[in-house]
Design a protein that fits this description.
The chain contains 14 helices and eleven strands. The chain is α/β, with parallel strands linked by helices.
């Protein structure tokens, strides 16, 4: 008799991702990051992270549920009692190769065996786990599939220090990961700053901790437990912001520097992950804030989506997730087009020619303008649609208007049929 259908589904999803990682590791020039995989999460310069004791006396109340990289969307709202030291697990489970074992095997290989000398060490894949159903299901699937494929599997849990007892909970999660056979396992405490607002600061701190853990352990990838339901919520939040097709594309299955972050569960619903935990008797932690109407995502999850399903019928979540993928494909194609168009629109001095920009479709032209503004020093997070529309009028509605001031002290002006965008 095979495993429970929910268990089989999550294992298959993880197996596919691990195969992708192994294929990339064995491909020529696999160490070079692919440009299309760079995302906003690749750099988090304002977050503070350490695997040792960190004190966070000035914890910030979070008005909206932070989008957790674990996939469980668990906001933290209360300061922890004090500092804590992260703990690392012991030895790896039997049967899971490590770099040291790989080196010993290579040392025993015959000197004339070129294949033995070129055999890469087994890649390490980490799972980000908060202890919720989504990320615990992901951790169990990784622990089951990784040894069969010769992949080392570890785990990391992040304690934001913003909720009473969060340090003890992080220790419990780390112990559960060890019991699954994962190694290395690490509980990391971070200090959440204030830059960009509490939600953005918490998100930056989480991803900074995960990035640092990947660098520290030499991990090839980090698995995140976001589900199809999370994707649907993200699409609706993007729609409410009215920030364009890119925001409707939701979360990418592969993102981060060099494709570091992988989301195997984007086609799996939240209930499947929970059923998988129940079938395996895995203890999970349900954050009470996930049902707190004070948080936007919680209201959307418990009020907004049910109302849409009542009005439109079942299948809204699946349709929104499908919309995310279609939007992402369109946005990627338009971004690629814009990259080519920008190169063609520049003259020998590197300035953008207004006539060539005017001939472009609006969706492509505005992407070119946005890229040019960011290259000139405008912060991407502060550059909104209204800014780009004002710059666009220098191309399509030229009436001799003056320069346009953009975030980051960047100025855009039209001079002699050229569009000049630079600081100052």
């Amino acid at each position: 008799m095979g495993p429970h259908p929910a268990v089989a589904a999550i294992r298959l999803a993880v197996r596919r991702v691990l195969h992708d990682i192994l294929d990339e590791q064995s491909a020529p020039h696999a160490e070079l990051p692919r440009p299309e995989l760079q995302t906003a999460h690749a750099q988090t310069p304002h977050a503070v992270q350490t695997p040792h004791a960190v004190q966070t006396p000035h914890a910030v109340q979070t008005p909206h549920a932070p989008h957790s990289p674990y996939g469980d969307h668990a906001p933290e709202t209360t300061p922890s009692p004090g500092p804590r030291t992260a703990r690392l697990s012991g030895q790896p489970p039997l049967g899971v190769p490590t770099p040291s074992r790989g080196r010993r095997l290579a040392a025993r290989a015959p000197q004339g065996s070129q294949a033995a000398h070129e055999r890469p060490s087994p890649p390490l894949v980490l799972v980000a786990c908060s202890g919720g159903a989504d990320s615990m299901a992901l951790a169990s699937a990784l622990a089951f599939e990784a040894p069969k494929l010769g992949v080392r599997a570890g785990g990391i849990t992040v304690d934001h220090g913003l909720q009473a007892g969060s340090d003890l909970r992080a220790d419990e999660v780390a112990q559960r990961l060890r019991e699954l056979g994962l190694d290395p396992v690490e509980a990391v405490t971070v200090a959440v700053g204030r830059d960009g607002g509490p939600e953005a600061a918490a998100r930056d701190a989480r991803y900074a901790a995960l990035d640092a853990a990947a660098e520290r352990h030499g991990a090839a990838a980090i698995l995140l437990g976001h589900t199809r339901d999370d994707q649907a919520e993200t699409v609706l939040l993007g729609l409410a912001r009215g920030s364009g097709i890119r925001s409707l594309s939701g979360m990418a299955a592969v993102s981060g520097a060099g494709g570091r972050y992988r989301r195997p569960f984007l086609h799996i619903d939240r209930q499947t992950a929970r059923k998988a935990c129940m079938a395996q008797s895995l203890p999970v932690w349900d954050d009470p804030h996930n049902t707190d109407p004070a948080y936007t995502r919680s209201r959307l999850r418990h009020e907004g989506l049910p109302a849409l399903e009542k009005a439109l019928g079942k299948g809204v979540v699946e349709a929104l997730a499908r919309t995310a993928q279609l939007s992402r494909d369109d946005a990627d194609a338009l971004d690629a087009w814009a990259g080519q168009a920008e190169a063609a629109a520049r003259d020998d001095a590197g300035c953008l020619e207004c006539a060539k920009l005017h001939a472009l479709p609006p969706a492509v032209r505005r992407r070119v303008l946005r890229r040019a503004a960011i290259d000139a020093g405008a912060p991407a997070g502060s550059l909104f649609a209204r800014h780009i529309e004002e710059v666009d009028r220098l191309i399509t509605g030229w009436r001799g208007q003056g320069a346009i001031n953009l975030p980051g002290k960047v100025v855009a002006r039209r001079q002699g049929g050229r569009l000049v965008i630079r600081q100052g």
